[in-house]
Amino acid sequence: MPPSRDEDLDWLYGRSPRPPGPEPTRVLPPAADDPSAAPPTPSWDRPAAPPPDPRRVDPGWGRTPRTPPPGRRPQGPAGPPPAPPTAPGGRPPRRRHPVRNAVRALALLVALALAWLVGVPAYAWSQVGRVDDAPAGERPGDQPGQTFLLVGSDSREGLTAAERKRLGTGKTEGQRTDTIMLLHVPPGGEPALVSIPRDSFVDIPGHGENKINAAFAFGGAPLLEQTVEQSTGLRVDGYLEIGFGGFVNVIDALGGIEMCLPKAIEDRDSHLDLPKGCQELDGTTALGYVRMRKADPRGDLGRVERQREMLAAVAGEAASPATVLNPVRYWRLSTASARSVRLGEDTSLWQVGTLALAMRTVAAGGGLTLTVPVSDPDASTSAGSAVLWDEKEAAAMFSDLARGDTSDLQQYVR
C-alpha cells in the first residue's frame, strides 16, 4: 500500500524516518493536454545540479549556458571586468593628466625665470664696490623726494698704456670728474636730471673758489658731495660713480648704443670721425662722443647735453625687453655694471632701484633734462676760463627741487 501524502510530508520535514527500501515508483495521472507525458521523477531521485560558477551569473538559474560559435562575442553578462594593470610594487599606475602637467611645467618655467631675473642682480649687487661719500660739516635737512649725485670720473687708474691710447684718455694723473649730474625723484610728478658743468666756478670748502671738478681732485667723493650740497642747497641721498673703463664695459655689454648725430663729427683728440645720422656706437666710440669738447662750439654746455643724452639711452636700452629677455646680455650687463660702478656707503639697493626707474622714465621722454642756468659759459676767473651760474635762476630752480616740486622746471630748459 503506497504511503499517503501526509506520510511523504512527514519524512520530508523530518517528522519520521524515510521508509526503508527503495521508494516505489509513483504513478501520477497524465496531464490533461498531453496523454503521453511521462510522470515526473521525484526530487530525491533527480541528479544534483552542478554548483554555480562564482565568476558569472547564470541567467537561466541552472540551465547550461550556450557556447557561442568561434569568432563571436558572447552575449549578456560575462563576469566582472578584468583587474586593472598594476605598476611595479603592486600599486596601480598613475593616471596622466595632460592639462595639469602642462600647467605645472608652465609654473616651473615662470618660477625659474623669476629666480633668474632676481638672482642675477642680487649676485651683481654683492660685487659692487663701495666708496665713502659722507660729506663733512653741516648738511641740508631732509627734503621731500630723493636726490642722487651721479659722477663720471676721468681717473686713469687701472688703465694700461694701451687702453689709455685706445680710449684717448691722455696721461693725466690723479682724478677729476668728467661728468656731474643730479637726479631728483620727487614724491609726485616727473623726475629731473640736472647737469652741473664740470667747469662751474663755485666755492670749495677749505679750498676757496675753483672749478667744481677740482673738489673731486682735492678730497674725493666726500668733498665733491659737500661742495654740491653747499652750492645747491640740496641734500644728496645717494651716490653713484663710474670711471672711463666702466663706461666702455657697460656700453659693450649692451652690444653698443644707437645715437643720432645732427651733424658729422671729426675730432682728433677724441678719436672721432662719425657721419651724420643714426648709428651704432661701441663703448670706445661712445666714450669719445660724450667727452668731446673742442669740436663742439658750445664747449662744456654741449658736452653735458650729450652726456645726458647718452645716459638716458643707456638706461633705456638696459631696461628694454631685448636686454631683460636675453639671458646672455642680461648677465653681461649686470656683471659689467657691478664691476664698473661704485656706490656710496649708505646707498641702498632700494635707492638704486628708484634711480634706475627714474632714469628709465627720463629715457622714455617722461622726465625733465636740463642744465644749471648759466650767465657766462666762458668767464675769466682765478681758475682760468670757467662757467658762471645765473645766481637768481639757479637759486629758484634748486629751491623748487628742495620742495620736491618739478612742475615749473620746464622754464629752465635751454
Total of DSSP H or I helical runs spanning 4+ residues: 11
Secondary-structure-based class equals alpha+beta
CATH superfamily: LCP protein
User: Main sheet: which strands, in order across?
Assistant: 1-12-7-2-3-4-13
Q: Major β-sheet, in short?
A: 7 strands, mixed
Shape: elongated
Describe this structure in words.
With 414 residues, this protein is an alpha+beta fold. It has a single domain, classed as 3-Layer(aba) Sandwich (Aminopeptidase), CATH 3.40.630.190. Helix content is 36%, strand content 18%. It is built from 11 helices and 15 strands. Strands 1-12-7-2-3-4-13 form a 7-stranded mixed beta sheet, sandwiched between helices. A two-stranded antiparallel sheet has the order 5-6. Helix 2 runs parallel beside helix 9 and helix 7 packs across helix 10. The longest helix has 30 residues. It is elongated. The chain starts with a helix and ends in a 12-residue tail after the last helix. The mean pLDDT is 80.
List keywords for this structure.
alpha+beta; LCP family protein required for cell wall assembly; 414 residues; elongated; two-stranded antiparallel sheet
In summary, what is this structure?
With 414 residues, this protein is an alpha+beta fold.
Question: How does the SSE layout of this entry go?
Answer:
Elements: H1 5-12, H2 98-127, E1 129-131, E2 146-153, H3 161-167, E3 177-185, E4 192-195, E5 201-204, E6 208-211, H4 214-232, E7 238-242, H5 244-253, E8 257-261, E9 265-267, E10 272-274, E11 277-281, H6 283-291, H7 300-318, H8 321-324, H9 327-340, E12 341-344, H10 349-363, E13 368-371, E14 374-381, E15 384-389, H11 391-402
Parallel strand pairs: 1-12, 2-7, 4-13
Antiparallel strand pairs: 2-3, 3-4, 5-6, 7-12, 8-11, 9-10, 14-15
Transmembrane segments: 105-125
InterPro entries: LytR/CpsA/Psr_CW_biosynth, LytR_CpsA_psr
Domain Cell envelope-related transcriptional attenuator: 176-319
